[in-house]
Design goal:
Creatine Amidinohydrolase, 3-stranded antiparallel beta sheet, 278 residues, single chain, alpha+beta
Amino acid sequence: MVNYIEAATAPAKNTGAIRLYGQDAFAGMRKACQLTARCLDELAAIVEPGVPTDVIDRFVFEFGMDHGAFPATLNYRGYMKSSCTSINHVVCHGIPNDKPLREGDIVNIDVTYVLGGWHGDSSRMYPVGEIKRSAERLLEVTYESLMRGIAAVHPGSRTGAIGEAIQTYAEAERCSVVRDFCGHGVGSLFHDSPNILHYGRASDGPELREGMIFTIEPMINLGKPHVKVLGDGWTAVTRDRSLSAQYEHTVGVTATGCEIFTLSPGGLDRPGLPPLQG
């Protein structure tokens, strides 16, 4: 049985209950999430061939410090970086290092800032220079998968509606959906209930209720969905070494649908890709 709890009275840990946040929390999340979105906007001018991902990570740290925020990943369960940078066949949790990005790479940059006790969690894909059409298409399919998942969010639906919308579209485009990782509740905690699967049936999962806050972050592969985690305990890669992509937004359920907290203020939600039509 799924339990829901008013966030203001909930303990400061993940108990499995789903928190329902009020308007003050939504206001706090807007500030934290917009800071994250602004950082991701700035990174569009930094990502280019020859730039090591450590340079990106240092920018994320310094941008947060300059704005009174702390990167949630830094020192999280032993993770020692301020961001995740996942390149090409890396599905998620790629660790920044001194290896330069190369022309034709695609890289996901995942940033979470803690500002005023609220967690703003988002990621975007960045093409590095000129990329192949197959890579560009993967980015387009992945972004559209995210937005279709978000469009399924409204009170009375279930979390499975998000997964069904994503899976139906991605697989129709001859791509696969990673099963090993999922979206999650977020807000006053970095990772909270419920899990948001990116596959499934609309009848599955907890009911969506006004006040819920969570991430939707589909990982879509050009090849098969299977992944493995490398020996560092963090880096997840596709088993068949096919390209993988991910976009992530943090959303809050409203009375009529949802609010996307992490929308780019500069219109760079899919940097490097042609503008959407319509």
